[in-house]
Amino acid sequence: MGERTKTINFNKIEPGMRIAKNLEQNGRVLLKQDVLITDQIITKLKKMYYIESVDVYDNETVEKQVSIEDKKQAELSRVEEEFKEISSRLQNTFGQIASKNETSMNEIRDFSQKIQNELTPSSIVIKNIVLYGSGEDSIYRHGVNVAALSSLLGKWIGLEESKIKLLVYSAILHDVGKTKIDTEVLKKYTALTKSEFNIIKTHTSAGYNLIKGITFLDKSVSYGVLMHHERVDGSGYPLGLKGEAIHPFAKIIAIADVFDAINSDRGYKDKKLPFEALQIVKTEGLGKLDYEYVKIFIEHVVGYYTGEEVLLNTDEKCKIIQMNVNNLEKPLVMRDGEFIDLAKEKHLYIKEMLL
Prior knowledge:
Layout: E1 5-9, E2 23-25, E3 28-31, H1 39-48, E4 53-57, H2 68-98, H3 105-117, H4 122-132, H5 140-157, H6 161-173, H7 183-186, H8 194-200, H9 203-211, H10 219-227, H11 248-262, H12 276-284, H13 291-305, E5 309-312, E6 317-322, E7 332-335, E8 338-341, E9 350-353
Antiparallel strand pairs: 1-4, 2-3, 5-6, 5-9, 6-7, 7-8
Helix pairs in contact: 2-3, 2-4, 2-5, 3-6, 4-5, 5-6, 5-11, 6-10, 9-10, 10-11, 11-12, 12-13
């Protein structure tokens, strides 16, 4: 028999209750079934919507002890919904910039603040990006993910707060130049030709030209936009800059950009297996990405994988016990109480991260 449900007045909803039926308004799902109610969810819904009643499970009460995993799931769902909302609003802002109507810096500051508000705990944000990536949205959701990762990396590196704010502005705007590229090229479902790739490469200069005139925007923001595809060995674009000639913001954004792009489905490719994105970032750090920044990024991110559940290629569930920095795709895992070193089990690999 399924769990009993009841309909209650929305004003009586409390943290710890669980939604029994999708809460919808005007065809839009505000809360999915089984979402655990938190204080943040209640505050947001009361502020933005008028809701008369909601269906909850009868056996869920605020006094019931909620497991750690339930709390994590609730936070993960909340962050996902917030990132989706920011992405949607960002599309409108980019449209204003692209049409040469100067956008208000207040909007960029608001996006930056909203993203930074979601960075605690950082483990939830990293898990969200690893699980969902940015899908086929290579501009708006990708920009939100890159901004979140850039902010975290800036903090780990030790940047002062004022510079982190500017870094996040730059990361949010890093792909605004893609709004000037033909959609057919941008969303092509097959491999790009050389001429098409050359068109894609113009987005860095186009983005720089779009935002350099925004009033009161620090020049460091536009430099991050212009240079985020430069590489320390000089193989990048648009200027072929090397090493110290590349602005630090661009070096940070480049790492976040590569990580999210590899970890996302695109029209022309599927996302890589879990940990491949991390391994590729590490490899790129040996000549193309800033080595010290990559080292710091990996040292911090691997810690968030420990304790997470994963699915092997044999469809067996395991828990990560220890990451192997020298072989990121092959951690030590536990399966049914037994330790398994994937580095020694060549036929086994992780195919999926689990919620």
